């Protein structure tokens, strides 16, 4: 995908050789080298996330995406979208997975919109991406809570590790977005036309951050529940192993005296061996039946 320019008169996206200081542009990182007007601002923005010079503002914001993993299913991934805004232009820089949905979804409908309105809509789209990912993580949490009720293996533990990574990245990215927007708001004069737009975006970011914090609290509840289940399962396994050890020790305890050089009752009885076997297995069966009845073998 090359540099794309939105032609308002035609209402369509057209290919452009380079970025100019007028209009709406979509670029991928490969085109930055051809745009000397953007290169310096973007280089500074990579380090600082925010660059304000006179009426120009450049933001580098984290965007939450969903992708399929062969082992864990749907997982979260963080990418970055860079916005360079001037009173007459807006350049949107990002990978194709971010640019193409913007181009196909709603940017083409903004034929009569000013650059400030386009900037606000892009900012809200970035913020709402975290909300979309958060909804998916909530569904994964609900499914994981149901699976934990009957869990006896490590599948759920691996899912918790992946979910912990996704939630951590989501919380960090959302807070980073809030910090960038707050810094941009402080660096923007109050009479600037984009000041109220940034203020609206910041309020939306705070609302979504509160929701993500609630999701994180639910995640901690699930993690604590899993830890309790693991401990209960460990106690159950130890209980069952103790019962089996007792069952194995009973034949040994009854047979060992006949291996000693001591006189024992009925030692000359011709059916003694069969009587011992019947006695050992009978007592073992009775003890096993009693243990099963009282739930010692239930996992």
Automatic annotation (TrEMBL):
Keywords: Membrane, Transmembrane, Transmembrane helix. The chain crosses the membrane at residues 240-259, 271-291. InterPro entries: MgTranspt_CorA/ZnTranspt_ZntB (IPR002523). It comes from the Bacteria. GO terms for cellular component: membrane. One of its GO terms (molecular function) is metal ion transmembrane transporter activity. This is Magnesium transporter CorA.
């Amino acid at each position: 995908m090359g540099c794309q320019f939105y032609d308002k008169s035609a209402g369509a996206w057209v290919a452009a050789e380079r970025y100019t200081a007028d209009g709406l542009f979509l670029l991928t990182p490969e085109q930055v080298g051809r745009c000397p007007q953007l290169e310096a601002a973007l280089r500074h923005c990579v380090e600082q996330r925010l660059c304000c010079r006179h009426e120009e503002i450049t933001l580098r914001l984290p965007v939450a995406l969903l992708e399929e993993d062969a082992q864990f299913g749907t997982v979260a991934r963080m990418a970055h979208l860079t916005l360079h805004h001037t009173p007459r232009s807006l350049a949107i820089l990002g990978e194709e997975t971010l640019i193409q949905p913007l181009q196909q979804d709603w940017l083409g409908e903004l034929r009569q919109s000013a650059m400030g309105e386009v900037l606000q809509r892009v900012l809200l789209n970035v913020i709402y991406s975290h909300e979309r990912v958060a909804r998916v993580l909530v569904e994964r949490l609900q499914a994981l809570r149901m699976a934990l009720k009957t869990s006896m293996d490590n599948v759920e533990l691996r899912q918790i590790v992946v979910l912990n990574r996704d939630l951590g990245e989501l919380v960090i990215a959302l807070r980073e977005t809030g910090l960038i927007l707050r810094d941009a708001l402080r660096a923007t004069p109050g009479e600037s036309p984009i000041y109220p737009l940034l203020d609206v975006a910041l309020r939306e970011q705070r609302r979504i951050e509160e929701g993500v914090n609630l999701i994180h609290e639910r995640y901690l509840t699930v993690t604590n529940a899993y830890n309790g289940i693991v401990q209960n399962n460990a106690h159950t396994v130890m209980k069952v192993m103790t019962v089996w050890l007792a069952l194995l020790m009973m034949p040994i305890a009854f047979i060992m005296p006949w291996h000693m050089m001591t006189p024992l009752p009925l030692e000359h009885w011709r059916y003694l061996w069969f009587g011992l076997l019947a006695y050992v297995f009978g007592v073992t069966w009775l003890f096993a039946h009693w243990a099963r009845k009282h739930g010692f073998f239930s996992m």
